Amino acid sequence: MKSQQTNRRIALEGWVWLSPAAHSTDAASVTDSHNRKSFDWLLPLRKQIDRVQVRDAGLAHRLCKVIPAQCPFERDVKVFGKTLFHIPPMCKLNPLYDEVVALRFRALCYLADECGEDISCYC
């Protein structure tokens, strides 16, 4: 009877940081090209939205009504009760999505924390 030996291979993954001196010239040019960021045309608008401070209950209510809690474009297309296909949420394609959602969150927090209102109607 032969005894079977099993070889166990363990792969360890991790991030390794190499100093710039350790890079070859080819690798350095590749990393430099990846580190260059293109000009963000929407940066002024992003900053302006981030600077909006919600300090008025009327403004907070308007923001919560105007900015939807869920993506309004996400749909299941059904025919005779059977789902043909699903349209995924397209809000992530909006370049200002994160800033607008953060603004809505600040408005909800203002209404709940500062005004003591029930915000369940906006959720």
- Choose one word for the global shape: extended
Low-confidence stretches: none
Number of strands: 2
Q: Strand percentage, roughly?
A: 5-15%
The arrangement of helices and strands along the chain is: HHHEEH
Q: Major sheet, described briefly?
A: 2 strands, antiparallel
SSE order and pairing:
Blueprint: H1 25-35, H2 43-51, H3 57-66, E1 75-79, E2 82-87, H4 97-114
Antiparallel strand pairs: 1-2
Helix pairs in contact: 3-4
Describe the structure.
The chain is 39% helix and 9% strand. It has four helices and two strands. It has a two-stranded antiparallel ribbon. Strand 1 and strand 2 form a beta hairpin. Helix 3 crosses helix 4. 6% of the residues are buried.
How would you summarize this macromolecular structure in one to three sentences?
The chain has helices at residues 25-35, 43-51, 57-66, 97-114; strands spanning 75-79, 82-87. The chain is mostly helical. It has a two-stranded antiparallel sheet.
